[in-house]
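Exercise: predict the fold of this chain.
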Amino acid sequence: MSLLKPLKIANLTIDFPAILAPMAGITHSPFRNLILLYQKPGLFFSEMLSSKSVLYEDFSQSIYLRCIDSVRERPIAYQIFASDEESAFLAAKRLNKEEYIDIIDFNLSCPAPEIAKKRKAGAFLLSDLDLAFKILKAVKRGLTKPFTVKVRIGMKEDRELLKDLISMVEEAGADAITVHPRLVKQKLKGKSKWEYIAFVKEIAGIPVIGNGDVKTREDFFRMLEETGCDGVMIGRAAVQKPWIFGEISEKEYEITPDFLINLYQRMLELYKEFFPPEKALGRIKEFTWYFSKNLKFGHHFASKVQSSKSVNEILNFFKDYIKSCF
């Protein structure tokens, strides 16, 4: 870690430039506290949040907004998506008032049909940069805190259009940009093209955070070296391996059945304590899809969990199943 350069976003200095990505349904407070058992990332993210929902959620009660530990879960960025200027401005203004929130991030990268197609937000806005610019400017008007934006490389591979996108994000007042180097239509399929992160780093006047296909400590350092980016954002690999930030920090773990059982059991405890029962089971099932990749024939375990009716049923099955994997 001593060789890593700090990431500076406006007035915020992030000493460890390894960042937990925002993931809907995943990067809530219980998951962030699971990550904390192993190694704190340089920057946490919230789940992706609807700008309109931010306006009426109770911060002290909301499963999307509140923190179990607002001291240890910092620094933290809250990410919003919006399709209109007004809700974007009001949501940013409201988040800006919360002392424990360090950065507000805007999503121009989500390709999910529920967001991009139905709500005309997320990656959809890459097809209308004029509207995207107006919305980003509205977010910026609501903030005194650092402002970041996450993007994909576009609807098609075109470096001139990508230049226009980066220029627009900078002109709107962003303090840093995260680049996920896939096209919108690719979603999470195909190999991410890190050369586009390097290209953005060459042309951008603000810090650039790379994201995509970082699955190991070696990938983390390779992305830094190959692209010159200022920070690395890790998503799905951190759900599969909540200890990945520890590995990047040169901590060593022996991945035994007991190690995985203890981790999974602690996850269940955190989720049960935080979520109402009708929400906990769904979030546990979502986590398990990723975590099961640590197991031989893990997809069988994940499928079994999807049909489970209780947390205790899941834990008992997991303890029996994992012993057959080693």
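Check your answer against the key: The mean pLDDT is 94.
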